[in-house]
Amino acid sequence: MKTDRPWMDTSLSADARADLLIEQLTLDEMISLVHGPMPALLAERPADAELGAGYIPGVPRLGIPALNESDASLGIANPRRVRPGDGATGLPSGLSLASGWDPELAFACGAMVGSEARDKGFNVLLGGGANLAREPRCGRNFEYLGEDPLLAGVLAGEAIRGAQTNNIVCTLKHFALNDQETCRHVVDARIEEGPLRESDLLAFQIAIEIGDPGSVMCAYNRVNGEWAGENPFLLTDVLRRDWGYRGWVMSDWGAVHSTAKAALAGLDPESGEQLDKQVYFGAPLKEAVEQGEVPFEHLCLMVHRILRSLFDKGVMDNPAAHRETDYEANAAIAQAAAEAGTVLLKNDGLLPLAPSTRRIAVIGGHADAGVLSGGGSSQVIPVGGPGLEIEVAGMAGAFAKITYHPSSPLSALKALTRNTEVVFHDGVDPDAAAEAARQADVAVVFAVQWATEAEDLPNLSLPDDQDDLIARVAAANPRTVVVLETGTAVLMPWLDDVQAVLSAWYPGTRGGEAIARILVGDVNPSGRLPVSFPASVDQLVRPEIPGQIFGPPVEGQTLPTTRPDIQQHKGRFSVEHPEGADVGYRWFDLQGTKPLFPFGFGLSYSRFGYEGLELQGGDTVVASFEVRNLGDRAGIETAQVYARIAGGQRLIGWTRVALEAGESRQVSVTADPRLLATYRVEIPGWEIEAGAVSVTVGPDSATVALSGEVALSARTLKP
Q1: At residue 137, what are phi and psi to the nearest 5 degrees?
Q2: Which of 340, 700, 337 is nearest to 532 (CA)?
Q3: DSSP notation for 254-282
Q4: According to the model, what pLDDT value does residue 396 have?
Q5: What CA dihedral angle connects 418, 420, 424 and 427, to 10 degrees?
């Protein structure tokens, strides 16, 4: 340790080190640490600025490194290819990761992405999306981790924890209630505090408890009347007072609307400042401090939060530096995630494909070129370049293209079926595709649905007449498999006419290989849905997305999307959330409606049985039971435990069990007490009522394999 830099003494706490460093900072240096640009938009880029999403200059004289920030949780983005030729490993989508229900895999995926961030010189990873999938048509659902707060919170927390093992900061975002992309910059999401605490905020709270992210990113939207980035209830009352969060809160890019109000509400640095109406945390903040509108002590607190995380996560002591990346090893992690996250939704005995199959017709979905990925700030440019890119228009077109990872399912299937003829038809002509299917033993139709940041899907139907294509192929050959590459749930009017359906989501860098291995049986599918698949949009809380307008543009009143027939409302408005905490499967349960596929659903090439439920109550619920593999091959079962609290169904835990054929195992699941409680604003805190609670165990939210009752003791918990 240098004696002239006592803050570099690693025996001190992160808080003490931050305080020592702040004593040396000038006012101008403090201001410089709380705002920064997008480096690609600078006329002259600083030597220490990486070409990524954001940059905040450091203070070299004191050893404070520049913050170089990169999107995102699915891989290291290269926005507009500002780093020519620089590709990265693309993970499967967040919904795919969530379909694995595997905390250890989430940790490994986070660690891999964090390592690539560090390899490329970035020390802040803009990952950790934990917004619940309240709106199935939301354009960013593919980035997130499903509709349940426990599942989303645990997996987001583990991914963040993994990323930060690389001595970088990882964010948690978008705080909070950013559940639609339509009009995200103007919409006011309204919900009562109790239900908000029990749903979206609980997901963030669990993620923070597990992952301890160095930073939290605010959302664009308003929440109950206040912008998320200047919302004292969210940033101060909940995040810092109730949860004790000690990291910094950054803005999203273009999400700052004020200086003193935002700073005093709890926002720390202003990110991507060129996208705001002005640089609110530059000269205006300095003036506000000098005039006493923002106390100097509060500015010190803002800077302290930033420096504390840099010390706590190892950024100061282990500066990021460029190094070689083992893309082959990282691709193997991505493939493992894709295999774990692929969900078998239907199988009438057609899968796995028999070795005796003589001819397979692969149809549609650009399966000859690669696998689809989602658009927006999370878009990963594959190593070596995309398999296919398609230009789009509208707001999303400014930073997104329809991009396919060059992992061709067609090529992968050919490699695994050397004694089988595998032919391809692009599906553009449905009649010709049907004829190709008729001449094959099996038809495998790849159906795609592209989703992107900045806009929502118009519906839950497959676009471009793909439903008709599937129907015609299935009519020509009932031995049809449909492989879905989608960003969310889709409707399936052809479901009864095909023999098998795989949901591969956006399967990432090695998605083609993962799909092929499941089709031929080299991998036993184990994915389980992290979202419900509605039977129709009429089952949704909001059959129409507020602010989404079907029709031609109206000057001064609408904003364009990638589709000329769909616009976004331009002015401000609010969206009520009458569903409260009853998101997804809980809404279906409350309404007594049956989805197309329930939350937690997924088939296997094995069969599993449950027996011997034992329940313990008191302060929480402990469920113990036996899971047995009844099939003739090894497989993985995700046993889910639900409780009925206040008249509604809640996931209170799960366990993922790998079993050999015929093997059984005794397992135990302990519930987080908050999942058994109601949040009471008047306490304030969580309240568990004394009495009997119904508990069910099964393979999904709609199937009861075991059930029982257990008595809970009355207790309250802090917020």
Answers
A1: -90, 5
A2: 700
A3: T----SHHHHHHT--PBPSGGGSSS-TTS
A4: 82
A5: -140
User: How long a stretch of residues is the chain?
Assistant: 719
DSSP-derived 3-state class of residue 674: helix
Task: List Cβ neighbours of 149 (8 Å cut-off, separation of 6 or more).
Answer: 132, 198, 199, 200, 202, 203, 206
Helical pair 149-163 and 103-119, crossing angle rounded to 10 deg? 40
Strand-strand pairing, 442-449 and 421-425: unpaired
pLDDT averaged over the chain?
A: 97
* pLDDT for the residue numbered 470: 98
Residue 568 vs residues 184, 188, 225, 256, 395: alpha-carbon distances, Å: 10, 15, 20, 21, 10
Residue 145 near residue 91 (C-beta atoms within 8 A): no
What pLDDT is attached to residue 393? Answer: 86
- Burial zone of 592 (CB within 10 Å; 0-12 exposed, 13-18 middle, 19+ buried): exposed
Structure tokens at 678: 């109601």
Which tokens hold the place of 33? 């640490």
Place of tokens 């989508």: 93
3-state class (DSSP) for residue 664: strand
Contact status, residue 335 vs residue 497, Cβ threshold 8 Å: no
Q: What is the CA radius of gyration of the chain?
A: 25
Residue type for position 66: A
CA atoms of 285 and 302, how far apart (whole Å): 12
Q: What's the longest Cα–Cα distance across the chain?
A: 81
Helix (H, G, I), strand (E, B) or coil at 573: strand
Q: What is the pLDDT of residue 2?
A: 59
The per-residue pLDDT for 286 is: 98
Q: Each residue of 559-605: pLDDT tens digit?
A: 999 988 999 999 999 999 999 999 999 999 999 999 999 999 999 99
Could you give the CA distance from residue 405 to residue 453 in angstroms, rounded to a whole number? Answer: 18
Four-residue CA torsion sign, 520, 523, 526, 529: negative
Per-residue pLDDT of 32-54, as tens digits, reads 999 999 999 999 999 999 999 99
Tally of CB atoms within 10 A around 44: 5
For 491-529, write each residue's pLDDT tens digit: 999 999 999 999 999 999 999 999 999 999 999 999 999
Give the strand order in the sheet containing 480-486. 343-347, 500-503, 480-486, 442-449, 359-363, 421-425
Query: Phi first, then psi: what are they for 659, rounded to 5°?
Result: -130, 135
Please give the Cα distance from 245 to 235 (Å, whole number): 10
The 3-class SS string of 149-188 reads HHHHHHHHHHHHHHHHHHCCEEEEEEECCCCCCCCCCCEE
pLDDT value at residue 409: 98
* Buried/exposed code over 125-160 (b: 16+ C-beta within 10 A; e: otherwise): bbbbbbbbbbbbbbbbbbbbbbbbbbbbbbbbbbbb
Tokens of 400: 């997104």
Beta pairing partners, 678: 687
Alpha-helical regions (H) of 213-267: 232, 260-265
Q: Please report which helix (H) or strand (E) contains residue 470, including its range.
A: helix 466-476
pLDDT at residue 1 greater than cutoff 60? no
Evaluate whether 254 touches 275 at the Cβ level (below 8 Å): yes
Tell me if 279 sits within 8 A of 269, measured CB to CB: no
Matching residue, tokens 């113990």: 624
**Structure confidence by residue, pLDDT tens digits, 120-164:** 999 999 999 999 999 999 999 999 999 999 999 999 999 999 999
DSSP state of 147: S
- The pTM is what? 0.98
Residue 181 CA to residue 179 CA, distance in Å, equals 7
Question: What is the arrangement of strands in the sheet containing 388-390, beginning at the earlier edge strand?
Answer: 371-372, 402-405, 388-390
In sequence order, the 6+-apart residues with CB closer than 8 A to the CB of 393 are 560, 562, 564
